Amino acid sequence: LSSGDAQLLFIAGNAQRDQRRWEAALTYYLRGYELAPDNDFLPGNAADMLNRLERHDEALPLSEVAISLDPDWLKWRRARIEALTHLGRATEAVTDADQAMARWPDSGPLHAERVNALIAASRYEEALAACDRLIALDPDYRSWALFSRGETYGHMKRHAESALAFRQASASYQQNGKP
Description:
By secondary structure, the chain is an all-alpha fold. Helices cover 77% and strands 0% of the residues.
């Protein structure tokens, strides 16, 4: 942490992130950002860690800094969408997701953030359709999308369909070797 080399701090932050030590990773990224305020990876990864720590009010401005430094890096937009969703600004998050999807239509993680934003905005029918698109687009998200369908049906008070979607998600997780 005492290194004056932002790149080393970035690498150290990544090592902590890979071990799921979000606070430690955040500390390295923020220290690196102090040293290299023009490097988008430092505030962007700090925003990602803050979202993981559910400190969305702090993540939002850092995601915006990262976007301003590199508007072509999708991960920073996803961090912003996640922060907006959790800050009760789901309509804005959906708008951001829709704009990003015009540019990156094949990104499974972006589709997943859009589903979360749609659910938070109580746009349930759109969320269900978005889950279906995600399943078709990216098989790695099948279990997640089925689980999200269960949550969405639950919000809609369609309990039988919710239970079915959760059972499908469980079977998909088990088929893929996940608990």
